[in-house]
Amino acid sequence: xxxxxxxxxSPTSDSSNNRDLEQVILDFAQHNRxxxxxxxxxxxxxxxxxxxxxxxxxxxxxxxxxKITLKxxxxxxxKIVTSPDGHSLAAATTTDSSEMLNDGYxxxxxxxxxxxxxxxxxxxxxxxxxxxxxxxxxxxxxKYALSRPxx
Length: 151
Hints:
By secondary structure, the chain is α+β, with helices and mostly antiparallel strands. Helix content is 27%, strand content 19%. It contains 4 helices and 6 strands. Strand 2 (80-82) and strand 3 (88-93) form a beta hairpin. Helix 1 (21-31) runs antiparallel to helix 2 and helix 3 (110-119) crosses helix 4. The two termini are 32 Å apart.
């Protein structure tokens, strides 16, 4: 028995841009080009990110891999990082192999993560950790990312 899956065409699979997500994050970190940011948003749009959390704040009895929906009164404590200039950021990684996730993590869809960051007044933005590089998105960049059409 098997399942047939058809690979989705990558939004950047044309001949002019065949970089993967990790390369685009590195390019944006190094050059801060608008086109790199736009490609990164397209690549992340249908992906999930991994968020380090305080595992003691998770609901009791939660099984690893279990999907949950929080009630409005529920709280999960994200691990907040501080930027080099002192701003509070929600951290997320593009892979589950980051050391940042060693104590426990949640997985969220990229757009939902960005919407959550916008709602948290105490945050300046978010830090996205790729395999080889990291970037900081302030709330203006997050709003712009959310305004982009899905790939």
